Amino acid sequence: MDIIIFSGQSNMQGQSEALTSTDQVPRAYEFKYTENCIVPLKNPVGEDITHSHEKGFPLMEDTDFNSWLTSNLTGSSCYGNTNMVPEFCRSYIEVTSSEVLAVHIAKGSADIAMWDKGSELYSLTVKKAAAAIKEAEKAGGADRILLVWLQGESDAIYSHSRDYYKERLKKLQMSLFRDLGIEKFCVILVGRFTGDSRDDEIIAAQRELCRDDGNFVMLTEIAEELYRDPVYMNPFVGGHYSAAGLELLGRTAGRALAEATLK
Predict the structure, then answer these.
(1) Tens digit of each residue's pLDDT (9 = 90 or more) over 52-63
(2) Domain segments of the chain: what residues?
(3) How far apart are CA 185 and CA 178, in angstroms?
(4) Is there a cis peptide before residue 44, judged by omega within 30 degrees of 0?
(5) Which fold has domain 2-262?
(6) DSSP for 179-214, written as a single string
(7) Which residues fall within 8 angstroms of residue 156, CB to CB, at 6 or more apart?
């Protein structure tokens, strides 16, 4: 069984406008930390987990956003809608024929510093992933431990430089390698959120790390262009992908990771 950790901010959490298929992905499962169990993988994905690591409440249409943001350390797919993870795993499995255990750890509005080693979010990431690995070992073992990253929009908003972002992301990769044994840190290139040169800094940082550091793998760069086509963007929440956009990202990135692991 391959363990794939899906981490990042709102576009990885999932903030689409619709719920598409809720069919189970064959040979794919999701680990639920608050229940310490493995369930079939299907939309919607993820968990709302509080700062005390208890089950939180989801962000729905009638939920106060600031209250949700303050109360929860990680989030499930917003409004119970479509996330990229099922299509990612479906494409990955079609190529590799592996079983997959998905571990979703994402939080909207989170900048890179929120994953600094010792932070609340980093601590939960390690605890949830370690618990998933333990459950996978009971079920026959973990063949690969991989992380898929879609994040950086907040860092663009905060005008962080490419050097600042690269340094933080490299430290995160090294910490997760030591603490969890992550084989590869896989990047879905962040999209254009601010629409100006601030995006360029984060995009360049991710590209340079994946080009120059063998511990990083660029899975796809299509997110940078999706904003040009309204079909792939959430019409109600600016800068976020629609269900079609997330599914396209998932299919593209999942196949790319599968092909990379088979080389």
Answers:
(1) 999 999 999 999
(2) 2-262
(3) 13
(4) yes
(5) Rossmann fold (3.40.50)
(6) HH--SEEEEE----SSSSHHHHHHHHHHHHHHHH-T
(7) 190, 193, 194, 198, 199, 201, 202
Question: Helices 162-180 and 120-138, interaxial angle, to 10°?
Answer: 40
Dump pLDDT digits (tens) for 116-131: 999 999 999 999 999 9
Give the model confidence (pLDDT) of 181-192 as tens digits: 999 999 999 999
Give Cα separations from 24 to 21, 153, 205, 262 (angstroms).
9, 30, 36, 25
Name the token pair of 23. Answer: 């069919």
Residue 20 tokens read as: 């598409």
Query: Based on the number of CB atoms within 10 Å of its own CB, is 143 exposed (0-12), middle (13-18) or buried (19 or more)?
Result: middle
DSSP one-letter code for 25: P
**Whole-angstrom distance between the N-terminal and C-terminal Cα of the chain?**
18
Residue 80's CB is within 10 A of a number of other CB atoms, namely 16
Structure tokens at 143: 């063949």
C-beta separation of 119 from 51 below 8 A: no
* Helix runs in 14-101, H state only: 65-71, 85-96
**Nearest 10 degrees: CA dihedral of 235, 239, 245, 246?**
-120
* Local structure of 68: helix, strand or coil: helix
